[in-house]
Amino acid sequence: MRHCSVQVRGRLTRSELERYNALIEVGHYLEEQKRYDLVAVVQKEIDVLILPAIERLKERSRQRDRDTEEYLRRKAEMEAEMKRIQDEEEED
To answer: pLDDT digit string (tens) for 51-83?
Structure first.
């Protein structure tokens, strides 16, 4: 069984996480029984289950990028304003 990343697991809802853990447990049992044909089915189900969490993780990353862009824009504006004020003070 392939586990998803810790980051993806962190984005799973409570019910998704409970289902994920149950499917992993079933998959491990099937591996012990050497029922790899059924393990593949369980793994596909896990892959489908985690898709919404992957999208939430991507959206979180996109939001962080937007926040960083906004911060850098405001910082540049503040620096430009400070420079303008300094230039005005030097002229006086």
So the answer is: 999 999 999 999 999 999 999 999 999 999 999
Helix axes 36-49, 51-91, angle to 10 degrees: 40
CB contact at 8 A, 31 and 54:
no
Tokens read off for 84: 């303008």
Burial of 79 (0-12, 13-18, 19+ CB in 10 A): exposed
Q: Residue 18 corresponds to which tokens in the numbers above?
A: 């409970």
- Tokens 């939430």 belong to 56
Q: How far is CA 12 from CA 25, 50, 65, 72, 82, in A?
A: 17, 7, 21, 31, 45
Q: What are 13's two structure tokens?
A: 């809802």
End-to-end CA distance of the chain: 73
